[in-house]
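Here is the promised in-class demo. Please do not try to memorize the tokens; focus on the logic of going from shape to residues.
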């Protein structure tokens, strides 16, 4: 579509008419035209520079104002020290030289740096110039705050540097900042001398540009000659010739250009401005007459595009409004945060969560607002989302205990760079609390389902304490008949000394009683105001301040109450009432069930105990046998501290049995206590009415008589004991605590007394029958006892005999065996041996005369087998197996002993005979006879020792050695013995050493036999160690097999014992090959005697040895529990 003349053609006509032709004329006047144009250009340039400087200063002052506002927000509500720290930090940024905080009354509260400042009129906000007495001009920026004014001295160096960077090298003049009073602040150039003091007004041409929102003006001063000088040199005459033609041409051309381009472009610009504002007027033309076709086309296209843009903007605005409305309406906290976790946008719910408007949160860190931190929270989902660029979620708990579920989704720009994250936060405190309460309720309910309700108390206390933060949890059990409450402490930290577990008190002693009895909840946050109540006063003195009490009712009956207490004076139960009601209902049901089961158990126990008591009373031969039993059983039925039984004798009641008074040191007094029935109303009332009596608190009964020595009785029960309807005595129960007994205890004790009364009646009725039946029972019992004794005797012989017995049928088969026969024939014997024994028994039964007994081998042992006929009492036989293995071994040992004795005696006897013959045949020369006599004496000594050792062995073997045990300290024993051995050791040049134990061990031993043990061991060490050897005797304690032992150890560095000989060294007459070859004296019985004596002391002896290095003999005896000296002390 053609809208008009093409712009190209119109422009060509325009150039020909109004540029080329006028240019020819202007060419003639180029000099003057150039001069004027240059001057105009220079002045315009400087004016633009002034305007530019004013605009840049406005932007910089706006920046400084925003910066100062941020500082004011940061120090708002801070202490002077914190404010000073923030302002001092801001000074380092270089924008300001000093700060001053001025109150509403004009008083300076803070100056940074310290010192007096020349302040402007601080009631005026914004920028102001102030000249000091020394002539310096300062620029101040004043900001009004809720507390007063924050005044900052703008850094002149910063302003000069800023202007220099913006203008240099564009401008060579001066630049000032002036106020209406004419005071100047030099800005440019930076080294202007007038900047020091008393700046003078600028000279030359001045251009001014006012600063918006301020009474200050930017003044630019320069010399007009400098601006016009370059152009005045051109010719002035050509200007006069061409000015007329230029004026006519320019006027005509301007009108044509305005019609073709300028006006359409202004309309187009106006449309662009309206489009920027979001709307375009309906009268916006699509084309203009006379305008260039391109411009008309541009207008038409622009209008179509603008209408489309406006429509799209309208749609986008509606969409944005709907989204914003949705975000503002959701209950979740929604924020947009930059990578530094600063909030850039927040919805209304986010602001409401902290009591602020959403725009007040912008610029602040999320962790400062919601968590009161100076750094991000650990594992913050928002930080992780920004760091990883992926969706993150998690839970965070704020300092006030609220729980938040956070979902963070990162936002990225076109390049994929993370520019922030959208955080959606949902408070789940109530949900978590409800989950914890439901979990606790489930655990409590499961625990309360236990058969014993007390098993649930730890779970109940733990969950209530954890969820409510209370320190004392008490269960109060109500007794309707006595109107009392009994305390069960589930938890008490700190404890209440006056109210231990099990304490019973009157309901009226607590302020909560009225609510408990009415079935209502009682709560208070100030327990001290109830100090007139004894229970509440004790609790308050222990440090508790708040309390809530829930009554426990089931089936319309009051069971008790659940009391929760805290040391904090605040309602810790807020928000938990529904949970606590559920807990109290469940607890009431469990207690009701437990009370029913407890009553049933008590009734069953009462019946069982009473039945046992009645049975024992009926069996008793005298009253003394069952009186103590009655009191013992009464203590199992009623929780009393002491019991007594009184019988009425005339007008007196005398104690005939008592139990439990030892604890109160009243045993002697109760044993002889006799009361006149009319002097003590407690027993008088029971005697006259025949009804039992309960006194829950004796201190509250005025007629209670305090008997010396029995002042500790605080609770009392008395029940009558009747025989044939007549009161014959009283069964009394005493308690040391008030309200220790209940009416339920009274009823149980009365029922027990009734059973006892019936038993006493029956005992009297059957007393007459006993005399008749005793004779018959005595005869039957004696005969039965005889038969049972005989049977037991025979059975004991049969089963307990060390011989084996087997009962055989007439054919010789085994019918029954005793344990020994079973062990030998069925366990020890092989199948072939068992078969052989069976055949042997059959042969012995068939031919008893020809084959009455035999000797047989069975399982490696030797038996004497004999069969005895049981005719005519029994058709069969009895086989007897007698183990003669030891007899054979003993016979063999005797033979060996005789052989060894003969061998050992043969050598000294031969020596004696030889030297006796030499004496008889030798002349009577004393010097020659003496060696013969010495050899004879040595042989006689050897024979004496051998005979003594043999005698000792025989005595040990036959058990004729008796020990005389007494405590023996091993240190002293070894020390004394060592003195005896030193002389003998010195004959062989041996070194004798002893080592004693610091524990000073003591053992129970026969001193003489212990000395014999050590003598044998030391004598062997001396004789079997070459000359110049070392003998060591040591004492110590040792633990082995869970027992403590006293140890004596004898060590030498002698010839040693070969390994193959070690198992035999304790055998009788055993002597090693080396000892025999080297003819070392000895009988071979010493170590055998030592071993027998050690084992006779329940001890052990051990040996370790190595050929050529020596031997170590260790004697271990059971250690006494403590050293002798300590035991005697």
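The designed amino acids, position by position:
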């Amino acid at each position: 579509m053609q809208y008009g003349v093409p712009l190209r053609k119109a422009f060509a006509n325009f150039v020909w008419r109004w540029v080329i032709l006028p240019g020819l004329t202007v060419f003639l006047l180029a000099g003057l035209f150039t001069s004027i144009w240059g001057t105009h250009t220079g002045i315009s340039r400087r004016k633009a520079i002034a305007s530019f400087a004013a605009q840049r200063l406005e932007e910089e002052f706006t920046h400084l104002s925003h910066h100062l506002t941020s500082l004011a927000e940061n120090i708002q509500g801070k202490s002077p020290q914190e404010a000073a720290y923030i302002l001092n930090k801001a000074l380092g940024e270089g924008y300001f030289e000093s700060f001053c905080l001025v109150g509403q009354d004009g008083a300076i509260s803070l100056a940074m740096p310290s010192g007096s400042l020349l302040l402007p009129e601080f009631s005026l906000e914004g920028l102001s110039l102030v000249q000091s007495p020394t002539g310096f001009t300062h620029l101040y920026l004043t900001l009004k705050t809720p507390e007063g004014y924050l005044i900052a001295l703008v850094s002149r160096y910063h302003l000069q540097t800023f202007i220099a960077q913006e203008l240099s090298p564009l401008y060579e003049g001066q630049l000032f900042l002036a106020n209406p009073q004419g005071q100047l602040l030099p800005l440019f150039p930076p080294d202007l001398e007038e900047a020091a003091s008393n700046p003078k007004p600028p000279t030359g041409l001045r251009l001014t540009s006012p600063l918006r929102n301020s009474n200050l003006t930017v003044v630019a001063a320069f010399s007009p000659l400098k601006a016009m000088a370059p152009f005045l040199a051109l010719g002035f005459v050509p200007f006069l010739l061409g000015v007329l033609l230029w004026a006519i041409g320019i006027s005509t051309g301007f009108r044509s250009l305005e019609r073709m381009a300028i006006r359409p472009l202004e309309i187009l610009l106006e449309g662009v401005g309206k489009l920027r504002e979001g709307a375009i007027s309906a009268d916006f033309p699509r084309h203009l007459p006379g305008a260039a076709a391109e411009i008309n086309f541009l207008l038409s296209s622009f209008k179509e595009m603008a209408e489309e843009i406006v429509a799209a903007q309208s749609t986008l605005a509606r969409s944005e409004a709907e989204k914003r409305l949705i975000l503002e309406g959701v209950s979740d906290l929604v924020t947009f945060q930059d990578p530094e976790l600063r909030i850039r946008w927040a919805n209304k719910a986010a602001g409401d969560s902290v009591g602020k408007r959403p725009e007040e949160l912008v610029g602040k860190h999320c962790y400062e607002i919601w968590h009161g931190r100076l750094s991000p929270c650990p594992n913050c989902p928002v930080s992780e989302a920004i760091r990883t660029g992926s969706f993150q979620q998690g839970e965070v708990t704020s300092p006030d205990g609220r729980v938040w579920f956070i979902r963070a989704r990162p936002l990225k720009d076109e390049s994929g760079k993370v520019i922030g994250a959208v955080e959606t936060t949902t408070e789940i405190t109530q949900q978590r609390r409800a989950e914890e309460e439901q979990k606790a309720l489930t655990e409590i309910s499961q625990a309360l389902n236990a058969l014993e309700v007390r098993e649930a108390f730890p779970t109940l206390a733990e969950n209530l304490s954890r969820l409510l933060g209370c320190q004392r949890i008490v269960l109060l059990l109500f007794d309707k008949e006595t109107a009392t409450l009994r305390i069960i402490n589930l938890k008490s930290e700190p404890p209440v000394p006056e109210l231990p577990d099990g304490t019973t008190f009157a309901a009226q002693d607590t302020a909560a009683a009225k609510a408990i009895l009415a079935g209502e909840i009682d709560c208070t946050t100030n327990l001290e105001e109830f100090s007139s109540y004894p229970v509440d006063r004790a609790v308050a003195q222990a440090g508790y301040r708040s309390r809530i009490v829930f009554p426990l009712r089931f089936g319309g009956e009051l069971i008790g109450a659940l009391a929760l207490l805290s040391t904090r004076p605040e309602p810790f139960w807020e928000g938990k009432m529904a949970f606590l009601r559920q807990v109290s209902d469940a607890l009431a049901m469990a207690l009701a069930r437990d009370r029913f089961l407890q009553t049933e158990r008590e009734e069953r126990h009462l019946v069982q105990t009473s039945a046992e008591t009645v049975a024992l009373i009926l069996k008793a031969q005298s009253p003394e046998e069952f009186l103590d039993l009655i009191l013992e059983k009464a203590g199992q039925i009623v929780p009393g501290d002491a019991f007594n039984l009184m019988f009425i004798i005339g007008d007196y009641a005398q104690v005939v049995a008592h139990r439990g008074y030892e604890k109160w040191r009243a045993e002697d007094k109760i044993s002889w206590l006799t009361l006149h029935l009319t002097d003590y109303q407690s027993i008088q009332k029971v005697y006259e009415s025949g009804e039992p009596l309960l006194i829950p608190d004796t201190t509250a009964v005025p007629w209670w008589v305090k008997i010396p020595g029995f002042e500790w009785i605080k609770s009392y029960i008395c029940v009558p004991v009747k025989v044939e309807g007549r009161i014959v005595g009283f069964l009394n129960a005493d308690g040391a605590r008030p309200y220790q007994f209940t009416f339920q205890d009274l009823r149980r004790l009365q029922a027990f007394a009734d059973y006892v009364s019936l038993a006493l009646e029956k005992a009297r009725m059957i007393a007459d029958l006993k005399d008749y039946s005793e004779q018959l029972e005595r005869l039957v019992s004696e005969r039965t006892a005889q038969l049972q004794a005989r049977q037991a005797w025979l059975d004991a012989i049969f089963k307990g005999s060390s011989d084996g017995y087997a009962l055989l049928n007439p054919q010789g088969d085994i019918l029954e065996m005793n344990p020994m026969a079973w062990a030998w024939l069925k366990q020890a014997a092989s199948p072939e041996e068992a078969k052989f024994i069976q055949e042997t028994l059959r042969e012995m039964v068939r031919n008893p005369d020809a084959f009455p007994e035999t000797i047989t081998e069975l399982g490696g042992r030797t038996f004497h087998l004999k069969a005895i006929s049981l005719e005519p009492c029994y058709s069969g036989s009895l086989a007897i197996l007698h183990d003669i293995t030891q007899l054979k071994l003993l016979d063999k040992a005797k033979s060996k002993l005789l052989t060894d004795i003969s061998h050992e005696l043969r050598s000294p006897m031969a020596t004696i005979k030889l030297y006796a013959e030499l004496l008889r045949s030798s002349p009577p020369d004393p010097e020659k006879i003496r060696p013969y006599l010495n050899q004879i004496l040595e042989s006689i000594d050897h024979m004496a020792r051998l005979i003594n050792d043999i005698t000792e062995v025989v005595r040990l073997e036959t058990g004729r050695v008796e020990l005389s045990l007494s405590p023996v300290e091993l240190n002293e024993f070894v020390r004394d013995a060592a003195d005896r051995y030193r002389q003998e050791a010195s004959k062989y040049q041996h070194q004798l050493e002893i080592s004693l134990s610091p524990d000073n061990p003591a053992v129970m031993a026969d001193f003489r036999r212990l000395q014999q043990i050590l003598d044998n061991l030391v004598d062997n060490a001396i004789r079997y160690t070459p000359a110049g050897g070392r003998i060591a005797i040591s004492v110590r304690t040792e633990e082995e097999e869970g027992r403590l032992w006293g140890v004596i150890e004898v060590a030498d560095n002698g010839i040693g014992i070969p390994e193959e000989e070690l198992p035999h060294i304790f055998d009788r007459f055993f002597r090693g090959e080396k000892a025999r070859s080297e003819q070392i004296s000895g009988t071979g019985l010493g170590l055998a005697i030592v071993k027998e004596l050690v084992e006779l002391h329940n001890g052990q002896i051990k040996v370790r040895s190595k050929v050529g290095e020596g031997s170590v003999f260790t004697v271990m005896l059971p250690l006494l529990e403590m050293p002798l000296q300590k035991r005697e002390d």
